[in-house]
Each structure stands twice: as structure tokens, then as C-alpha cells.
Amino acid sequence: MWVRFKSYRRQSPQVRQLVREAFLKLGWFRAATLLIKFKYLTRSLQHNARPPAPAPVSPQLQSEAANIGDIVARVAAHTPWQSPCLAQVLAVQSMLAKRHIPGVFYLGAQVNSASETPGSKLAAHAWLSCGSEIINGEAGHEKHTVVSSWSWQ
Question: For the whole model, what pTM was predicted?
């Protein structure tokens, strides 16, 4: 724990602010996903019947979005609560929207065989893209079929 704290202290003030924001948003969205209906969590987003074409994003905004996605993923690995893909994607989406960076968040499903996950027939996964790049939740997204998507400007 001390090593992580020392690493945190060596970061720039801007990165430390992003880490604090990511930690708070992960906590908020973890609690929200447990207590609030999903339709209320996505109320401010535009629901898409089909995944939309990626909105063009400048290289500077693309880099900032990738940085935010990376920070949220790193912070999620060290929270004292579980931070599943949905909480991470909602946190990243919130942080990007605050900075007026457009993106799309996807919800996908996969039918599991009995050998993969005993007792579970369906697996869900959430991931987020900005421009043509997946910012958060990239691992395993290709195994899932997109069920729904939401975008923001």
C-alpha cells in the first residue's frame, strides 16, 4: 500500500485530481448500479437502436480520453469494493461528458456453454469507445454481441 501511495505522490497534480475523481465516481457508480434501476442511470444518454458510427475526435481529445480510461481501469483494480466493467464504463462516460468528449458505451451479452461458467447461461460486458478506439472494457468485448448502446456529445 505504501508503494502505491508513494507512486501517487510522484504524479502531477492533474493526474492526482483524475485519480481522486475516478475513485469517487467508481464508488458512486458501484453503489448506483446496486441501488438504482439501469434506465435511470442512462437517462441522460442517447439510446441507440443500432451502434452508431464513431464520432470524429481530435487526436488531443482521443489522447485525453485514453488517459482517463487508463486511470479509471488502474484505480478500479485498487478500490476496496468490486468495480466491475459497468461501473468503470459509467465512471469513464461521466468523466468524458464533463470534458465534452463524445463517445459510445456498449452493453453486450454472450451465451456461455455449461463448461465455461457452471450455473450461468448468460454473461454481460460493458465497454466504451471514443472515436474508433476502445477506451475502457476492451478485454473480452469481441466475445460479446452488442445488445444496446448509448452515446453522448
Answer: 0.88
